[in-house]
UniProtKB/TrEMBL annotation:
The keyword Lipid biosynthesis does not apply. It comes from Flavobacterium haoranii. The keyword Transmembrane helix applies. The chain crosses the membrane at residues 32-55, 75-99, 134-161, 167-187, 208-236, 256-277. This is Membrane domain of glycerophosphoryl diester phosphodiesterase. Keywords: Membrane, Transmembrane, Transmembrane helix. It comes from the Bacteria.
Length: 313
């Protein structure tokens, strides 16, 4: 079983994240896709339908050159469908994101208790924590997003004087880690929202540079993997367009049909792998959370002492 409570430095934050998936990866992703896989597919289907309607409207507008407002009219004629799909997409994104963010927190909590996480137990705990999870996300929309928008706006202004670039590379992992640490504390305890934010800030302050550095490295790893995964179908699509004579004709139905399929497939792959690979970052944040907790409370040492005492009895 993976050792959660352990004092770690920068390199161990990263290496132990990889070790976690070597030890727990099979069971982890089996439960993850059982719980979240169906919802991810529904989200992909909804987005695919949205893209299909958009491209069909654009293709029809190109064919009707005499009416420059045809595309807008076409969109308004499908306004009800667009609003319905938009609402379903928004709901699906929120649901998938909440599960995606909460799943690793619960998985590590079960490991902390010395048990092997099962799909049933994870689902039961997800249901139990659903209210708190949704509340955290709703409050964050009104509290954190405005603050972060101001911070990022100031940082982008500072880019003009060079100093903004290094600040941006620090700010993104810092904000991400702060939210993650706050959420871990919020879900694992009965703390209120603002108490959790303060605790998250406190955790980051304990080992600021190792935490920010490891978080940044995990983001880089995820982005490299995502780029490689999406690059393959992208190159395949370009090669098909350049080598197929039928697709080289402008304003043909075949061309737009191919583009629609190509964009849909690329988007589906991107969504599926983006959500899946977020687990690398979130588990990394969990390892940081339990490492700082170990440094503060010496939990593993206390458990060993209690174990020795119980054995002597």
């Amino acid at each position: 079983m993976f050792q959660l409570y352990k004092k770690r430095d920068f390199s161990q934050f990263i290496s132990d994240t990889i070790s976690f998936f070597k030890i727990e990866g099979k069971n982890y992703f089996k439960s993850y896709f059982t719980i979240n896989g169906g919802l991810l597919l529904i989200l992909v289907v909804l987005i695919s339908l949205f893209v299909k309607i958009f491209f069909e409207g654009m293709f029809s507008a190109i064919q009707n050159n005499e009416n420059p407002n045809f595309f807008v009219e076409q969109m308004f004629s499908n306004l009800g469908l667009f609003i319905g799909l938009g609402f379903l997409m928004f709901f699906a994104i929120i649901l998938v994101s909440v599960i995606n963010y909460t799943f690793p927190v619960i998985y590590l909590k079960i490991l902390e208790e010395g048990k092997t996480p099962t799909t049933k137990e994870i689902i039961d705990r997800l249901k139990l924590k659903a209210g708190r999870s949704i509340l955290f996300f709703i409050i964050s929309i009104f509290v954190l997003i405005p603050v972060f928008m101001i911070l990022f706006f100031i940082t982008f202004l500072l880019i003009m004087v060079i100093i903004g670039f290094p600040l941006l590379f620090i700010l993104i992992p810092a904000v991400s880690s702060w939210i993650a640490q706050s959420y871990y504390h919020y879900i694992n305890t009965n703390s209120g929202y603002f108490d959790a934010l303060f605790k998250g800030y406190e955790i980051i302050g304990k080992k600021f540079w190792p935490i920010i550095g490891s978080t940044a490295i995990m983001y880089v790893i995820v982005q490299i993997i995502l780029t490689l995964i999406t690059f393959i179908p992208y190159i395949f699509g370009l090669m098909t367009m350049f080598t197929n004579p039928d697709l080289n004709e402008t304003n043909t139905q075949e061309t737009f049909g191919f583009i629609m399929i190509f964009v849909t497939v690329l988007m589906a792959i991107s969504i599926l792998f983006n959500y899946t690979l977020q687990n690398l970052i979130l588990i990394n944040q969990g390892i940081i959370y339990y490492s700082i907790k170990e440094a503060d409370e010496n939990i593993s040492v206390n458990n060993e002492i209690e174990s020795i005492g119980s054995n002597e009895e």
